[in-house]
């Protein structure tokens, strides 16, 4: 079982969207996933609840997938580790923990409980600084571990990326368009370990709040003639997220070390 925590010093950096996206990809792969909502704002819990209240516009309401559970975060560290152990015993393949923005001690506990910490960031100069600050925070935290082999993997994920950039990601960056400050930040950012797959900016991911995981959104669209015409873009999003999830799975799990 793999445990992923999604953290950022910055609020609104795309943490919860990344959590929901990876959960969708894990479902598509047939993996049992448990989401733990470590943000007191309860965005993930709310996601589950909103699904039950969704308007199904004349089609048979879809069921929330059994392979995906959503729960609130235990209040103590001991209970958290117990809960993670219990999920493993239940045969869960993946646990994804959402955290709140900022540098709270609660987020540190949730990061330390993970095999992999993901730091989502929009590819915007103002946010790179925050991604770098998040890496510094996490590295300091991991440096304090007695046994360095306990330190989670740490990766940046570029999200909310304009489609144009996704399309030209492998072409040269127009460096002349950047200010000296931006170039400096970009240099630093390029030194962070990051996942190659970018999550594109997409209205479909903004609509996550309404229709549960993308696998369910696809089923839903396929259930009506009008929806079938619009299923392609959702499948495309799921493809990006599946590629990200494949990368995550390819990282060496801590338990394999
Ligand atoms: N790939 C994306 N495409 C389009 N919109 C996105 C994408 N990722 C995030 N967003 C939007 O950006 C906003 C912030 O995203 P999200 O809620 O995932 O961030 P967060 O880090 O969880 O925020 P918070 O710190 O408040 O919990 C949301 O409105 C979300 O819909
Ligand atoms: Mg959030």
Please give a structural write-up:
The structure is a single chain. By secondary structure, the chain is an alpha/beta fold. It has a single domain (2-248), classed as P-loop containing nucleotide triphosphate hydrolases (Rossmann fold). It has helices at 15-28, 43-52, 77-89, 105-112, 125-143, 163-167, 180-190, 203-206, 208-211, 214-222, 225-228, 231-250; strands at 2-6, 33-38, 68-72, 94-99, 116-121, 153-158. Strands 3-2-4-1-5-6 form a six-stranded parallel sheet, sandwiched between helices. α5 (125-143) links the parallel β5 (116-121) and β6. α1 (15-28) crosses α12 (231-250), α5 (125-143) runs parallel beside α7 and α10 (214-222) packs antiparallel against α12. The longest helix has 20 residues, at 231-250. It is globular, with a radius of gyration of 18 Å. The two termini are 14 Å apart. The mean pLDDT is 88. Bound molecules: adenosine-5'-triphosphate and magnesium ion.
Order of helices and strands: EHEHEHEHEHEHHHHHHH
Structural class: alpha/beta
* Envelope shape: globular
Low-confidence stretches are none
CATH class: Alpha Beta
Beta strand count: 6
- Helix count from the secondary structure assignment: 12
